[in-house]
Amino acid sequence: MLDILLNDWQLPILFFSVALLYSSAGFGGGSSYLAILALSSIAYTEMRAIALLCNIVVVCSNVFLYYKEKMIDFKKIIPLVIFSIPMAYVGGHLKITEKLFFILLGFTLLFASITMWISKKIYTENYVLGKPNFIKNAGLGGIIGFISGMVGIGGGIFLSPFLHLTNWDTPKKIAATSSIFILVNSLAGLSGQLTYVNFKINWQLTSMLLIAVFIGGQIGNRLSSKFFSPILLKKVTAILIAFVSIRILLKYVI
What stretches in the chain show pLDDT beneath 50? Predict the structure, then answer.
């Protein structure tokens, strides 16, 4: 069984750590927030909203910093988000059962752990930039947006590896693009959830988590890779996420 392992007072510490790590790579940390929440007593109906709110807080700072550094290419980003925004809203609006939610979450976390584990092979400085394809990018954005809205993440963990593998742009600009993608999809997915008649959330706990990820995100944005190895930390995080995903899938699939 998937036992309750974490108490409310432990969550802010873990969320702070996740935000610090993910913000240095341009991510919001939604997949890891969900992995942590899956080991708590929080109702599954609240998990998506909490994860998306934390995503928004973290990536807002990322987007601001990347904008100041002129790393955002809106002409290339628009095709990715033109369908992802409405599809993330639809995904967030869908009312799914607890079993389906955890099955989707389990597979999403497993995919996230795999992409994080192989990230060293994806990131490279020797770029020959590929040519953007509007239809391909728009379709990809729509699919990722829909899945992200249903599960409760921003989608950067899906988008970023694909962009690196296709040499979409430089690593810095891909990180900036992922941040914007996560922000708009998180907002859209959260908007979809807010349309629920019986929507509710523990604002006392959520406020503590938002403060924790804000502080962690600010530190992560500035530390980046100066004082720690992102590759090592990502691999450790990948192992932990994989462990949680396997436990979830064992309970709800087998």
Answer: 1-4, 121-124
Q: How far apart are CA 186 and CA 209, in angstroms?
A: 16
Going from N- to C-terminal start, the domains of the chain cover: 11-252
State residue 130's pLDDT score. Answer: 60
Q: At how many degrees (to 10) do helices 98-117 and 30-37 cross?
A: 130
Instruction: Render 61-78 in DSSP notation, one character per residue.
Output: HHHHHHHHTT---HHHHH
Q: Are 57 and 210 in contact (CB under 8 A)?
A: yes
Q: Which tokens in the block code for residue 113? A: 């752990």
Q: How many Cα atoms within 13 Å fall on the side-chain side of residue 94?
A: 17
Looking at residue 40, its amino acid is: S
pLDDT at residue 213, as a whole number: 93
